[in-house]
Amino acid sequence: MKKRLLAILLAASMVLSLVGCGAESTEAGSNASTSEESEYAVLDSSIALSTEEVAELMATSVQHDSITIDAGKLNINPVKLYDSGTELYSMYEMLFQVAGGLGSEMRATLADADRGEYGGYDHEEGSNVYTFYICDNIYDHDGNHFTASDAAFSFEMTKEGGQVSGWDVVESWEAVDETTLVMTCTRELTSKGELENIVLRCFMFTEQAYNDHNFTEEECGTGPYALSAYESGAYVKMEKYDNYWQTDTSKMQRGQYANVNTITVQYVVEDAQKVAALETGAVDMSQSVPPAYIETIKNDGLTLAKLPGNDVAYLEANMSGKSPLSDDINLRLAIFYAVSSADAATVMGAVSNEAVYCLGSSVFPDYNDEWETWDNYQTSAGNLALAKEYLEKSNYNGEELVILCISEKCAQFIQQVLQNIGIDCSISKQSSTIVPDILSEGTDWDLYLNSGVRASDYVANLWSHVMNGSAFVGGTTEGRYDSEEYQQLLQNALQLDATQDDMDAFWQATVDNALVEGLYSPITYIAYDEEEISSLWLNDKSVFLPGAFVYTK
User: What is d(CA 145, CA 119) in angstroms, rounded to the nearest whole number?
Assistant: First the structure.
């Protein structure tokens, strides 16, 4: 299984150097690269640096005065995890980070790396109990001592805020003493990302700070930066915190550094404003350059880098028995061979989207490049001659097929392609709130187009979001496919100890039954001044942390 450790939604901390076409990485150990044909810096796989290597790299940076970056949302409330960005990850911390990509070693941050079999925690195989150890020298920005009871409080408050999924498996968090926290679950956490989804998805704060501050307007974390100014819907300004608790560089993870004195996160959402802010110097870095303005930005002399996405648009067949597709694999194959993922990506914007060749992409750590060589409709999509052959072998009698969607643009492309090979179809545009009900009923739709809202952390987890019978009414897949054998194949792929054979077997069963076709995944472009920043860094939630950048001046 080939792993490409890119920016992923769960459990991946990454060291990323970004280099322009023809340039060389300045960061030791980085595998960041660009294609000879590419005119963009590409975020590619990166090895995990040890704390010693991180310290050496950070020592090459000057202490930069200030940096301003744009953002499409602002939030300083630590219990609102899914609204979090640079500001929260700079001012607050979690128990762990991960070393160099999803599935890699968890590294202790607030946890004590010197205790526990796993560097900060203990767990006995087969047990539903996890014991975490907290550093004894942690103090927040008010000077409150952070202890295990505060960690338990942080988990409870975050859970109460409804910000995390997958936490129902936790029965309790209990502080045994000031530095020992016991988490008891309903079962052992054996699936990919389950443990990380808890310990890497909760900002930590003291109970005293929570009681003393209105976290929607004020901040009191343990991180290397403290809030200096905040205007809701406008900006967040943070200053390097001089009394930061972690001073031992032999234990510091990259996200704990503060190589710039002042960080300002500026709220900018309109495309023209983003570009104007870059051109005038109002912002030093854009986290999301509008594709239509890429040529403009290049002409301004800024470096542009690509950041692949971890969400995938897909086309799914109705297998409920209430559609002509349900019992006609030849008709399903005709459709999937006709619809090209490359063409779909082009229609949606070739600059901002890239085709995928399975339900997933190489951004996921358990993705297998070999899937792109398999002979199936995913790798040969757009083969109209073959699509027509399958259509002739099908039982299709001119019925109108309904494409259920939220966004019409790609649906119109699919409609045109299918009409060109002789399949009549119409589009049923829905709001996202009622699509699940229509899907579960299995009536009034034949194809479901989900336009890029399925995101995850492992490709197996992405599969689970679409195919796990336990998540949908009736115990079937989202597309109403009912098979115990198929569900068992999925469960095998989801396990922490899943083999390549387990992964291959599930994907093979998916294409053998022509259940779904992956279409495209979005690309985000980042702009920055390479003369000032030689190395960017973002955490596992694709959040840039300027304190961990390497500055040249």
Answer: 22
Q: Tokens for 38, please give them.
A: 């590419």
Over pLDDT 70: what percentage of the chain? 90
What is the rounded distance in angstroms from the CA atom of residue 138 to the CA atom of residue 277?
38
CA neighbor of 147 nearest in space, from 157, 132, 126:
132
DSSP output for 153-167:
HHHHHHHHTT--SSG
Q: Where are the beta strands (DSSP E) in 223-310?
A: 225-231, 235-240, 260-267, 303-308
The continuous run of DSSP H or E covering 438 comes out as: helix 435-441
Give burial (CB, 10 Å; 0-12/13-18/19+) of 186.
Answer: exposed
**Does residue 83 carry a pLDDT above 90?**
no
94-110 burial: b if 16+ Cβ within 10 Å, else e: bbbbbbbbbbbebbbbb
Report which of 120, 96, 116 is spatially closest to residue 204, judged by C-alpha positions.
96
Find the farthest-apart pair of alpha carbons in the chain and give their distance in angstroms, rounded. Answer: 74
Beta pairing class for 311-317 and 303-308? unpaired
* H runs (alpha helix) in 230-310: 271-280, 294-299
Q: What's the full length of the chain, in residues? A: 553
**Rounded to whole angstroms, how far apart are CA atoms 477 and 479?**
5
pTM above threshold 0.90: no
Yes or no: say if 56 and 274 are a contact pair by the CB < 8 Å rule: no
Pairwise CA distance, residues 492 & 171, whole Å: 25
CA distances from 305 to 17, 148, 247, 491 (A): 10, 40, 32, 36
Residues ≥6 apart with Cβ < 8 Å to 116: 122, 131, 132, 133
| Amino acid present at 113 | A
Contact 134, 151 (CB under 8 A): yes
275-290 average pLDDT score: 93
pLDDT the model gives residue 21: 34
- Cα–Cα nearest to 418, from 337, 354, 317, 472: 337
Which phi-psi region, left, alpha or beta, contains residue 120 (left: φ > 0; alpha: ψ -120 to 50)? Answer: left
Tabulate helix, strand, coil % of the chain (nearest 5): 30, 25, 45
- Closest to 363 in 3D by CA, of 311, 410, 411: 311
Kindly report the three-state secondary structure assignment for every residue of 467-516.
Answer: HCHHHCHHHCCCCCCCCHHHHHHHHHHHECCCCHHHHHHHHHHHHHCCCE
Give the SS3 label for residue 45. Answer: coil
- C-alpha 394/C-alpha 68 separation (Å) is 58
Per-residue model confidence (pLDDT) at position 431: 87
Say if strands 303-308 and 121-123 run parallel, antiparallel, or are unpaired: unpaired
Q: Which two tokens stand for residue 532?
A: 């000032």
Judge whether 460 and 358 are in contact, CB under 8 Å.
Answer: no
Residue 203 phi/psi, 5° resolution? -70, 140
- Helix (H) / strand (E) containing 55: helix 51-58
Which tokens belong to 525? 């472009």
Q: Are strands 447-455 and 303-308 parallel, antiparallel or unpaired?
A: unpaired
CB 413 within 8 A of CB 419: no
